[in-house]
Amino acid sequence: EVPADLAGRHVVISAGGTREPLDPVRFLGNRSSGKQGYALARTAAARGARVTLVAANSALAAPGGVDVVPVETAVQLREAVLKAASDADAVVMAAAVADFRPAVYAPGKIKKHGTADPEPVALVRNPDILAELATDRPRAGQIVVGFAAETDDVLANGRAKLARKRCDLLVVNEVGTDKTFGAEENEAVVLGADGSETSVPYGPKEALSDTVWDLVALRFPDPGAG
Ligand code: C5P
């Protein structure tokens, strides 16, 4: 029996990885599968929440009862998340958002131009959606959760990132080689702005998701309907 402790709550989750187009047929992207974000959506729905899943380029099937908003780029993901966040109790940014996008979008396919060397691709910075949301909460008392993939000094880098982004919780994964991206299982430490540290052993992404919802529910400023 799953507790309906998120009943009456609206949660917004971003999942997948953004694609930043160079021209109509090419993009800069990343290897995020969307599995962690979809697991967060499934578990939140099972616990009674109304769920908006902003999904960037994921091939996964929409979970039942979840409102899926498909997006492609970081700018589109920002628009969709901010719109859904206006009445959300919690926002969980599980998507891999590109830090940079091509400065110029070529409306026609970029040509090879004979034997000339290619032009370098100029990049511009994308908005940091997590930092923006956490700094300027669309709704008072909203809980904001980020994810961070680190390759070294996982806890120290995670703590610094949590402070920089001003989120309430940061789920820190160690990445590298075959770990995490595209995998069915995950291992993480969830850092709290209050100094808490919750280790989640290697296991299904649903288990990590349930721990995230436990920690979010503890931080809601008012008692829920569940
Ligand atoms: O800074 P870094 O990319 O490591 O931070 C990862 C966290 O920030 C994730 O929660 C990701 O969804 C979010 N993020 C964002 N906007 C960006 C880059 C990352 O919201 N432009």
UniProtKB/TrEMBL annotation:
Residues 11-226 are annotated as: Phosphopantothenate--cysteine ligase. The keyword Cell inner membrane does not apply. Keywords: Decarboxylase, Flavoprotein, FMN, Ligase, Lyase, Magnesium, Metal-binding, Multifunctional enzyme. Its cofactor is FMN; Mg(2+). Its EC number is 4.1.1.36, 6.3.2.5. Pathway: Cofactor biosynthesis; coenzyme A biosynthesis; CoA from (R)-pantothenate: step 2/5; Cofactor biosynthesis; coenzyme A biosynthesis; CoA from (R)-pantothenate: step 3/5. Residues 6-217 form the DNA/pantothenate metabolism flavoprotein C-terminal domain. One of its GO terms (molecular function) is FMN binding. Binds 1 FMN per subunit. It comes from the Bacteria. It catalyses: (R)-4'-phosphopantothenate + L-cysteine + CTP = N-[(R)-4-phosphopantothenoyl]-L-cysteine + CMP + diphosphate + H(+); N-[(R)-4-phosphopantothenoyl]-L-cysteine + H(+) = (R)-4'-phosphopantetheine + CO2. CTP binds at residues 99, 109, 127-130, 147, 161, 165. One of its GO terms (cellular component) is phosphopantothenoylcysteine decarboxylase complex. GO terms for biological process: coenzyme A biosynthetic process; pantothenate catabolic process. Catalyzes two sequential steps in the biosynthesis of coenzyme A. In the first step cysteine is conjugated to 4'-phosphopantothenate to form 4-phosphopantothenoylcysteine. In the second step the latter compound is decarboxylated to form 4'-phosphopantotheine. In the N-terminal section; belongs to the HFCD (homo-oligomeric flavin containing Cys decarboxylase) superfamily. This is Coenzyme A biosynthesis bifunctional protein CoaBC. It comes from Streptomyces nanshensis.
